[in-house]
Specification:
The complex is a heterodimer.
Chain A: H1 15-25, H2 35-42, E1 46-50, E2 55-57, E3 65-71, E4 74-78, E5 81-86, E6 91-92, H3 95-98, E7 106-109, E8 113-119, H4 120-129, H5 131-166
Antiparallel strand pairs in A: 1-8, 2-7, 3-6, 3-8, 4-5, 4-7
Helix pairs in contact in A: 1-2, 4-5
Chain B: H1 2-7, H2 9-30, H3 35-57, H4 62-99, H5 102-121, H6 127-182, H7 187-229, H8 234-245, H9 251-254, H10 257-265, H11 271-297, H12 305-352
Helix pairs in contact in B: 2-12, 3-4, 3-6, 4-6, 5-6, 7-8, 7-11, 7-12, 10-11
Amino acid sequence: MSHPLWANFFRHQHDWIHRCCRLCENNPLFRGIPRRAIRWLVSRMHVRHFDAGETVFRMGDPGAGALLLLSGSVNIIINGACVASLHEGDLFGEVALANDLPRTADAVTASPCEMVFFLRSDLQEWIDTSPRQASVLLVNLSDILARRLMQANVRYEQEVIPQENSD
Amino acid sequence: MLMRLVQQPTVLALLLFVVGMLAVATALIISGPMLMALAVSSMCYAALRPTADALVRRGLSDNVAVGLTMLLMMLMLLIVFLLLLPMLATQMASLSARMGHLDEQLVHMLHQLADLVAQYTGFHLDTASIASNILASLSEQAAKLGEKLTGWFHHVAFSLVLIPLLVFFLLRDYHQLRNEAMQLLPNRYFELGWLVYNRVAAQLQSYVRGLSIQGMAMMMMCTLGFYLVGIDFAPMLGVATALLNLIPFFGISLAKIPPLLVVMLSDDPDFITAAMALGVVFFAQTVDAMLLVPRVVARSADLHPLTVMIGVALAGYYFGFFGMILVIPVMFSMKVVFGELRKGLHQLHRHAG
């Protein structure tokens, strides 16, 4: 027998973990984090499957963590307008990693999706277990959020302020 | 109409809560014979988890860390048993020898009490009839206790085999089991489920930590107090008093029984020593009520006293000693689960609408 039952009894390995590790290694949130730590972290993530057109979360929902898209695509919608389209390897909802603030946009799947939840509680556990490595991720997270804030400021200056002045 | 009513967040939260509670109650009834083993295993898991995490932090794999933690626990238990067993055996032999003179010692103490009462109030107590009533009641209780103890020792023997196994698998697989259970939630409620779980887990952790601090402090205060007052078996009594004191509401009275019993069984029982033993417990309980409970326990268990009283009485009736200790965390977990479900479903409903 090539795969006896007991061979994998104590070492159950899911296919998505391997794919997720590869995607995480290329994601800016995990920049500078050793491969072994990423693997440990990914093994604690939670994979979910969504149908096309299914709501992942809505603006104002309580957020428990970030999501990494393993396959399929997701539209980010604010006030009915699609502001971004996300694909394999994209991470979204990272604000919930930092705080339990409500979601700032709607996320709806555009096609059948496979995604993993990286929960704030798992990050907290990692901070307790490996504070040094976790601090690298926290620096990356603050960098991502700071860049997003700058982009929002620029957009505000370019789009909202001229409109207010013309009114 | 009915469907619209069910979609209301509060009604939905209530329905989910009732279904959840029915599931928990069914699980408790089914696991009744193993309740003690499960409770002790959970406590051991909570106590050993930080050690396993610390080993993982030092670079060991999960399996090696769990194995080493278990080995450490077994070694410590072995050392404690080897050191404590001869002492406990001597103390138990001494206690059983003294049990034979319980009636004489009780009458002796009652005479002392009657003399004191007569001296200060002029009132004469009928010590002979009081003693015979108490002894009749005691022998009836002792017979019942004997039957219960036989069953309890079988239970303990079974649990001693089961607990290490349960602790090992909890340390090794708890996270996986929990994650797989959470995977049963529908996509829409997945995050809400985790938020509720994390909130309850944080509260429980804080409560258990508070309870451990309270138990340790009570044990040390009582042991030291009994030792200073000169009561026999001070460490054993300290542990018994601290454990009984953990029972909410009724523990205050129950904790006073073991020291009184030991004083009555001593070679020279007297009323003053009994009063001093009670004084030690009273002092420890005052410190506990004024300093420990408000700071470490009550903050995490915000429940109405009447709810606590009824809950503890019912849990004691159905599940015995462990039920009385576990009822408070179970009750406040229920409260947090319902509150968080209602809040989360309100948010989901508001944004969906």
